Amino acid sequence: MTDDLLLRQVRPLGGPTADMLIRDGRIARIAPDLPAVPGVTEEPGGGAIALPGLVEAHTHLDKSLWGMGWRAHQAGPTLRDKIDTERRLRREWDIDPHRQSTRQALLSVGHGTTAIRSHVDVDTEVGLAGIEGVARTRADLANLVAIEIVAFPQSGLMSRPGTLDLMDAALRAGADVVGGLDPCGIDADPKGQLDAVFALAETHGKPIDIHLHEPGELGAFSMEMIIERTRAHGMQGRVTISHAFCLGMPDRDRARALVADLAEARIHIATVATPSRPVPLVEDLRAAGVTLCAGSDGIRDTWGPYGNADMLERAMLLGLRNNLRADRDVEHALWCCSGGGARVMGLEGHGIAEGCRADLLLVEAESVTHAVVAHPPRRLVLRGGRVVARDGHSLREAP
After folding, report:
1. CA–CA gap between residue 62 and residue 101 (Å, rounded)
2. Which residues of 11-44 are buried (b: 16+ CB within 10 A; e: fewer)?
3. Pairing relation of β-strands 360-363 and 292-294?
4. Is 292 helix (H, G, I), strand (E, B) or coil?
5. pLDDT value of position 79
6. I need a labelling partner for 178 at 20 to 30 A (CA). Which of 33, 124, 268, 287 fits?
7. Looking at domain 5-52+352-390, does it have CATH number 3.30.590.20?
8. R_g over Cα of the chain
């Protein structure tokens, strides 16, 4: 059930000041000086900018250490070091997936995020505990934020016998997306892993989101195999490649050729705009028509001490990483952290227009670009027309 609401004096997407009437969880009317509606609560906007809900399109809710006190970072430099350290500390530190995913999700809500895609570990040690914990959080917070679960074989799929069966069980238990990870670098069996991932997607009717950290030509090889299978399985528009560091390779002609193939296969890219690795270039993807979404990745987890779940700040980082300076370009970085994620997640009615779902936030800034670069506390956050956060904090208290 949603509450009707009349927002007074807001600036949709930084435009002229208007009132916004919300009925049944959707934006019913946007116009100046709307008449009062009997029985409808009014909320002063004070000239704040109204933006569509932010979308955290790549994170790991089950791994966060948020609220557990500061922990010294222990993981070594390689991907395998980080995976092994995480497996050990998950036991030693009691990183409970329900508690920790709730904490991070509520942190996101306070920052204006209304939808989250989370990769959740599935392996022979943790089993389905992570899936079950985050699924519980998804149900508990359904009125505050939409959570989509990716069944993610973090420790390997083909290289850890039994994981494939657990992935199948996770999808039957309610996971929304089939995950994968570095078909060459982790499993050393790109054909085996990708055939298994696409078979799971076909069996369960689910989309795919594959982590691809592999650099240069190794990553390009894996990417070409993903593109080939996307076409063969008729999965156009239902496959996302996360990180895609190979698209940041120095050979720009090679990278742009890959981008053209991604566009033809309608494969999406998710980035976290990391400063430490080559990353896909926003302008290459935008020019080719490839949808780019963004996320925070890990939030203060065993992989690293960084992250605060603020997707307005992530839009700034995306702009900085890609040298975006003009207003239209910074606004596109914000779109990647909102509309791009909504498109990848298939969120219907996302936006600031009459008829759109009332998932939105108010922020005090002079323009949309100013909101990105300053990322001040969110004045108000609505999910389905209901107030879920004020002044940067969720109304639900974290455990």
Report:
1. 5
2. bbebeeebbbbbbebbbbebeeebeeeeeeeebe
3. unpaired
4. strand
5. 84
6. 287
7. no
8. 21
What's the distance, CA 279 to chain centroid?
17
Q: Is 315 helix (H, G, I), strand (E, B) or coil?
A: helix
Q: What is the pLDDT of residue 2?
A: 52
Q: Which residues have CB under 8 Å from 325's CB, separation 6+?
A: 319
For 88-108, what is each residue's pLDDT tens digit? 888 899 899 999 999 999 999
- Please provide the distance, in angstroms rounded to a whole number, between the alpha carbons at the two ends of the chain: 25
Query: Which tens digit of pLDDT belongs to each residue from 134-184?
Result: 999 999 999 999 999 999 999 999 999 999 999 999 999 999 999 999 999
pLDDT at residue 381 greater than cutoff 80: yes
Q: State phi, psi for 264 to the nearest 5 degrees.
A: -65, -35
Q: How many residues does the chain have?
A: 399
Strand order in 393-394's β-sheet?
Answer: 26-31, 18-23, 5-12, 41-52, 360-363, 380-383, 386-390, 393-394
Cα distances from 323 to residues 9, 67, 107, 261, 366, in angstroms, run: 34, 34, 28, 25, 21
Q: Rounded to an integer, what distance in angstroms lies between the CA atom of residue 350 and that of residue 289?
A: 19
Position 43 pLDDT exceeds 70: yes
334-366 residue pLDDT tens: 999 999 999 999 999 999 999 999 999 999 999
Taking the C-alpha atoms of residue 121 and residue 130, their distance in angstroms, rounded to an integer, is: 6
Q: According to CATH, what is the number of the domain 54-345?
A: 3.20.20.140
Distance CA 378, CA 395 (A): 13
Given this model, what pLDDT does residue 1 score? Answer: 39
Please state, in angstroms and rounded to a whole number, the distance separating the CA atoms of residues 25 and 5. Answer: 9
Domain residue ranges of the chain, discontinuous segments joined by + = 5-52+352-390, 54-345
Give the list of residues 6+ apart from residue 122 with CB closer than 8 angstroms, or none: 128, 130, 131, 151, 152, 153, 154, 163, 166, 167, 170, 179
**How much is the mean pLDDT over the chain?**
96
Q: How far apart are CA 17 and CA 145, in angstroms?
A: 27
